[in-house]
Amino acid sequence: MKRFAAGIMLSFMLIYVLPLAFNVQPAKAGTIVVPDDYASIQRAIDVASPFDTIFVRKGVYCENLFIGKAFSLVGEDWQQTIIDGGGTGHVIYIKANNAKVSGFTIKNSSSEYPYSGIYLDESHNCQTYNNHIIAEYYGIRIYNSSDNHVYQNHIYYETGVELAWSYNNTISNNYIFDSNNGIKLAESRNNIIKENTFNSTGGTFVDVTYNSDYNTFQNNKIIEPSSYYDYKAYVGFYIQQSAGNILTGNMIHARQYCIYLYGANNTFMIENDLDGYRYSLYLEWDTTYYITFFHNNILSYGSVKINYDCKGVWDDGYPSGGNYWVEQSSKADYYRGPNQDEPGSDGIVDEPYQIDNYNIDRYPFMNPYRPPKFEISCSPSTVHLYAPQSKSCSIIISSVNSFILPVNISGSWLGQAPNGVVFSLSKSTITPPPNGKDTCDLTLTASLTASIGSFTLRIFGQSESQTSYADITITILSASLDITPPEISEPRQNPSSNVVQSNETVTISVNVTDSESGVNQVILSYTINNGSTWANLNMQLNATTNSYEAQIPQQLPGTVIKYKIIAYDNAGNNATKDNNGYNYTYEVVPEFSSTAILSILLLTTLIATALLITKKKR
């Protein structure tokens, strides 16, 4: 019996208890508040579980923090939530994956190498953003780390950001002020440095050294100085013994060199604005085994210095073009074509620009280069459809900076598509004229069973690698919700009221609009017996004049015709245009009878005879 009971108990455990052991739920991330829960930030870090959030209230915290796990460290207000390192070590040292730090003022690290405001060591997929960092040696240093994102920080003094032996990181939208060096890379590859702003950088804007290959520097800018004495950066980009780097869309102002290449092979420089007080581009020692340089604006004199026998690509062929050189003299643009021998201007100087004995820009620009692009818009961008109804709007493609390529147009619903609503485009391709516009019509049709609600239709434009889109908000309503009648203009009559002959029909035209459910029917109602009976004619829409028209047939001489306009919308609302209740009136010119004509002749004869007798008596 005991064995039987034990067997029953074991069976119960296997069936009910054991599955519970395997149904372990992951711990939910929590929030720790400093100083409410713990007096110090480091104590909160020590007890935090992975993926917790540590929220730090306003105050000054004199600490040196170590982060060794994944969680979010968030300050209440970056201006008033301050972490002070006391002049020793790193202020925040991170050796973890998936950690986040935001919302702090971080200051007073050690001023010795390699101490930093924030130091990432063998860390991956971390985010550092919305911080105010006062650097003593480094603001942020990323060492032997990858896939981190540093963005929207304000960094002051010394070196803003350094990447060392690191790859696939993104440094974006940071503001770096009064630093000796803005951003440095050493032995770091495949990083993206974009949309950062530098002001009063005293040494080098971006310093790229020693096998820092295949990085992209995009849309960064040094704030433009107002005079020579405000040129703080000595060098914009310094690239040494590194290959395959891409510089595009940067705005660079420098006292000496905008771009200095030293053993920097396979460098691509495209669409940059260069304003160097001494040189815009300086090529040194075996730099240009291969470089590509086009669509740049060289805005200063003494623009390029080449200290080595090198050959580069200085234009992108015709008609894409080369660069704008402010110092190129005798600019003229009377010809076009690959050989610049066809009559007509094309924005390219007729003569090539000779850089040195080995290098030439075949297609220099007359004016500073700006990349051609197109813009897409919809008019109107909000449409109301009362089911059933059709409406049209215009898709507009605008050429910017002489864009001239065809743009393919398509559309798709965002999210769930509405039932019973279809759209069509009058053209699938639009080619705008240079700096002009072209359009196509978009027709929207809602059936009687269309889904009621608001929906978004996205219209896409694509031309080669360029894409753009515009959204149209479409609201489908029941026609019963429309309580607004159509609007009717004053009718127009041809021929006019005083000259209608008995052998003429009379055309009545009128404009009718309804911005809600739309015009359903327009009727011309007329009477020839002072309202005893009325005849109704359906007026047809003339697509050329966009007016509704109908013809009143020929009537007998002397007939008085009265008419009015009645319009209905798709919701059944109606409006009447009847000359404020008096109706519109015209009379057919009456004919004279033979008796009337004889009487007029007799009267004329008597008058003439009387005048003759009077004359003889005199």
What keyword list fits this structure?
618 residues; mainly beta; Pectate Lyase C-like; Immunoglobulin-like; twelve-stranded parallel beta sheet; eleven-stranded parallel beta sheet; 59 strands; elongated; disordered N terminus
Give your account of this protein's structure.
This protein is mainly beta and 618 residues long. The chain has three domains: 85-316, Pectate Lyase C-like, CATH 2.160.20; 373-481, Sandwich (Immunoglobulin-like); 487-587, Immunoglobulin-like (Sandwich), CATH 2.60.40. The strands form eleven sheets. A twelve-stranded parallel β-sheet has the order 1-2-5-8-11-14-17-20-23-26-29-32, with helices on one face. It has an eleven-stranded parallel β-sheet with strand order 4-7-10-13-16-19-22-25-28-31-34. It is elongated. The termini are far apart. The model is unreliable at 1-6 and 8-27 (pLDDT under 50).
| Helical segment count | 3
Number of domains: 3
State the share of residues found in helices, binned by percent. Answer: under 10%
Structural class, by secondary structure, is mainly beta
Show the helix and strand layout.
Layout: H1 2-22, E1 31-34, H2 41-47, E2 53-56, E3 59-62, E4 65-67, E5 72-75, E6 81-84, E7 92-94, E8 100-102, E9 105-107, E10 116-121, E11 127-129, E12 132-134, E13 138-143, E14 149-151, E15 154-156, E16 159-164, E17 170-172, E18 175-177, E19 181-186, E20 192-194, E21 197-199, E22 204-209, E23 216-218, E24 221-222, E25 235-240, E26 246-248, E27 251-254, E28 257-262, E29 267-270, E30 273-276, E31 279-284, E32 291-294, E33 297-298, E34 304-306, E35 324-325, E36 335-336, E37 342-343, E38 353-354, E39 360-361, E40 373-379, E41 382-387, E42 389-400, E43 407-414, E44 421-425, E45 429-430, E46 437-446, E47 453-463, E48 466-478, E49 487-488, E50 492-494, E51 506-510, E52 512-513, E53 519-527, E54 535-538, E55 540-542, E56 547-552, E57 560-569, E58 574-577, E59 584-587, H3 594-617
Parallel strand pairs: 1-2, 2-5, 3-6, 4-7, 5-8, 6-9, 7-10, 8-11, 9-12, 10-13, 11-14, 12-15, 13-16, 14-17, 15-18, 16-19, 17-20, 18-21, 19-22, 20-23, 21-24, 22-25, 23-26, 25-28, 26-29, 27-30, 28-31, 29-32, 30-33, 31-34, 33-35, 41-48
Antiparallel strand pairs: 36-37, 38-39, 40-42, 42-46, 43-45, 43-47, 44-46, 47-48, 49-52, 50-51, 51-56, 53-54, 53-57, 55-56, 57-58, 57-59
